[in-house]
Amino acid sequence: MKYGAWIILVAALTFAVMSFLKPPFLLFLLVGVPVLTIGLTMASFYFSFRKTLQYEPIPEHGYEDRLRALDGQSGEWERLGFSRCNGFFLKMIPDSVTYVYKHRQTPAYSCVYHFGAKMNSDLITLLAGGRSLTTNNSSDAGNIPRPPAKMLQVFPGGSTSLLWEEHQRAMAFLAGKGIPPAELPLSEFRAHFLKSIQEFKDDVLRRPFWPAKLVFWVVTRYGRKHCRRVEEQSQSGFLS
Question: Mean pLDDT in runs of 10 for the chain (240 residues)?
């Protein structure tokens, strides 16, 4: 679902509640808003991470602006040694048009996502021992807690070259700690990507009171803890 359609749906539902139930404003503010927020959060989460989620071809119409924006970055990734190897559409909230690049020499992938209202990038490398390293440039990344093995460093607004520089730096640091990169063949990337989405969902659902926590994590910007290099984050002991 496009982000704009989701906003309209939320506004329409809120208007319907106010019009038909006519709750006192203070009651609606103190009870209705939290209930609606948690309910819509649950609906969005269950839809976005449903078991039936599958890759779809990028629609031919209605996404021209997104494709132009994604194509505009292709040259930068190519200059950094990446080659575009995949592209797909995921029907989530908001929906995502994704370009995938694989580095020609280093075991790393770049995923560039366009969600309609914003665009961001992940650099992803699998590591020994079932770990992984992700370098991202969105301030929203990491707002939902991750397992310690799924390492994340965020540089809000960072350029493609900065992300790649920091990703390589983190890879070198981790290799020095005995955690070298592991190769992910291109033929296995799609399966790994969808598996990661389901693992993320399962990790969230295991947490008590997860719907309320999702709202709390986003509002309090939990992900700020990842806005520093992995080598700095490691001082908290997560590599032990």
Answer: 53 58 56 67 89 94 94 97 97 95 98 94 96 94 88 96 98 96 96 94 93 89 91 76
Provide the 8-state DSSP code for 122.
E
Q: How far is residue 184 from each of residues 83, 113, 177, measured CA to CA in Å?
A: 15, 20, 21
Residues facing residue 219 across a β-bridge:
none
3-state secondary structure at position 157: coil
- Say which residue the tokens 């990842």 belong to: 226
The model's pTM is 0.86
Domain ranges (residues) in the chain:
3-48, 64-236
136 contacts 154 by C-beta, under 8 angstroms? yes
DSSP 58: P
Residue type, 222: Y
Q: Scan for tokens 């990344």, then name that residue.
A: 141
Question: How large a percentage of the chain has pLDDT more than 90?
Answer: 67
What six digits make up the tokens of 69?
């924006």
Residue identified by tokens 């309910």 is 39
Name the DSSP letter for residue 56: B
Are 132 and 125 within 8 A, CB to CB?
A: yes
Classify strands 132-136 and 181-182 as parallel, antiparallel or unpaired: unpaired
